[in-house]
């Protein structure tokens, strides 16, 4: 039976039972992976966690600054999943008998995340390891880049987006984490007040 991250953390004496309960609760409250919770809690550093998982799973560890990342792979995995679970889709290989997506993960033992990726992409998941902190920076960089590429430019007045198009774009930007809905609504309200002469 495949071990879970929490089992390895106890076996490796990186956490005791009390600390494990604390990070489990943090994981549940924030809706984030255990790997992300362990690092955000300060219980284990991102590098120690990545080193331990590399040694125990025998999976390769990657340097995200040097890894090629395909836009197609990024588009296939929702930003919310990538951010909460700390994972980054790298490439999709459609030349295999079963299409495979290569994913850098903070926790390659996270079966739920792997199943979500498989469902979202229709691909088999090939996991590699990267530290939680490196993944955060890479997720921010690559997902914001995709959103920027997807924003249409209005070239003439005839090409100004309709209300439905603008609503869809705003929803997409919020979903991708570019800004929060509350910030958008406050900015819109301020704009409407200034146009009414308040």
CATH superfamily grouping of the largest domain: Type II secretion system, protein E, N-terminal domain
Order of secondary-structure elements: HHHHHHEEHEHHH
Report the CATH topology name of the largest domain: GMP Synthetase, Chain A, domain 3
Got a strand count? 3
Q: What's the alpha carbon Rg, rounded to whole Å? A: 20 Å
- Beta-strand level of the residues, as a percent range? 5-15%
Whole-number count of domains: 3
Largest sheet: 3 strands, mixed
Mean pLDDT: 85
Unreliable spans are 148-160
Protein described:
- The longest helix is centred in the last third of the chain and has 19 residues, at 132-150.
- α2 (17-30) packs across α3.
- The protein has 198 residues and is mainly α.
- A hairpin with a 6-residue loop joins β1 (87-93) and β2 (100-105).
- Mean pLDDT is 85; it is low at 148-160.
- A 3-stranded mixed beta sheet has the order 1-2-3.
- It has 3 domains: 5-57; 71-140, Type II secretion system, protein E, N-terminal domain (GMP Synthetase, Chain A, domain 3), CATH 3.30.300.160; 151-195, no CATH class.
- It contains 10 helices and 3 strands.
- The N and C termini lie far apart (66 Å).
- Helix content is 57%, strand content 10%.
């Amino acid at each position: 039976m495949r071990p879970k991250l929490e089992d390895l953390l106890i076996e490796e004496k990186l956490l005791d039972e009390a600390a494990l309960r604390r990070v489990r609760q943090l994981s549940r409250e924030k809706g984030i992976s255990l790997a992300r919770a362990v690092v955000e809690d300060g219980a284990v550093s991102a590098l120690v966690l990545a080193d331990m998982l590399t040694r125990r799973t025998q999976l390769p560890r990657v340097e995200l600054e040097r890894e090629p990342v395909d836009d197609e792979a990024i588009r296939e995995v929702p930003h919310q999943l990538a951010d909460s679970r700390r994972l980054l889709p790298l490439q999709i290989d459609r030349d295999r008998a079963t299409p495979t997506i290569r994913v850098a993960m903070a926790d390659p033992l996270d079966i739920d995340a792997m199943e979500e990726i498989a469902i979202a992409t229709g691909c088999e998941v090939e996991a590699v390891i990267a530290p939680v902190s490196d993944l955060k920076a890479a997720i921010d960089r690559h997902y914001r880049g995709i959103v920027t590429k997807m924003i249409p430019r209005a070239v003439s007045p005839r090409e100004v987006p309709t209300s439905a198009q603008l609503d869809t774009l705003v929803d997409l930007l919020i979903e991708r984490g570019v800004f929060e809905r509350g910030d958008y609504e406050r900015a819109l309200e301020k704009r409407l007040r200034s146009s009414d002469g308040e």
